[in-house]
Amino acid sequence: MSSLKSCCTIAPVDSTYQPVGTVENVGIHELPTYIVGPKDAKKAIVVLYDIFGFHNNTKQFCDVLANNCGYKVVMPDFFRGEPYKPEWMGDMDRLMAWIQKVGSLKVIQPQVEVVRQWLQEQGVVQGGLVGFCWGAKISVQLTALDSFFGGASLIHPSFVDVKDAENAGAPILALPSQNEPDRLNIWKSLLRNLSVTNVIINVSMTCITASLLHVVIGVMNLTRREPLKLFN
Questions:
Q1: pTM for the full model?
Q2: How many other CB atoms are there within 10 angstroms of residue 224's CB atom?
Q3: pLDDT digit of tens for each residue in the chain (232 aa)?
């Protein structure tokens, strides 16, 4: 997983950014979802935020991504306004229990399916995934379950393990931040996964946005027969 110091003890940075997208209730369960980008887009990116939920920082990321790639970008509020609280940071037992309750694949996957169905009703024919921290593990797991998602980008990925890499069902862009634990065994497992094209880029968080804007588009346009390994 990601560095405990950077991942599980530091609260998100305060932001005064004003998002340009809108929040709509999606599907029969009325899942609150942040939506930005062209209404008639044929491709979409589903963003899985980190444990801090609907934060202005991730909404700003969605806005930048939509503006630069021309896709519809949606970010569901899986935690429905009740994200992990900053004052709980540092308590790993509490964090893991909380994730098992509200953030396991069993809990999240049906909600993503609702979003996917809604996107298809809007005319979207292919989607991609971008996951932050906790959301990165869910993203790579989702590629093994739903071929609608043509690629996944993992930003500062936490909790991703070898099994996730071995089961990945779409191109993967991995963007670990600096000073994280050695995950070479996981990245090697991705490269041995011959059923998909895997894209791995190792960059610092300071240049992550620029790199992602260029590469996430490429991931969604790759075919699974085009091998590409990219390191920076």
A1: 0.83
A2: 14
A3: 454 555 666 666 667 889 999 999 999 889 999 999 999 999 999 999 999 999 888 999 999 889 888 899 999 999 999 999 988 888 889 999 999 999 999 999 999 999 999 999 999 999 999 999 999 999 999 999 999 998 888 888 888 888 888 888 888 888 877 666 666 666 667 666 645 555 554 544 434 444 455 445 454 554 443 433 333 3
Residue with tokens 């405990």: 4
**d(C-alpha 175, C-alpha 33), whole Å:** 25
84 exposure class (CB count in 10 Å sphere: 0-12, 13-18, 19+): buried
One-letter amino acid at 218 equals G
Is there a contact between 199 and 171 (Cβ–Cβ < 8 Å)?
yes
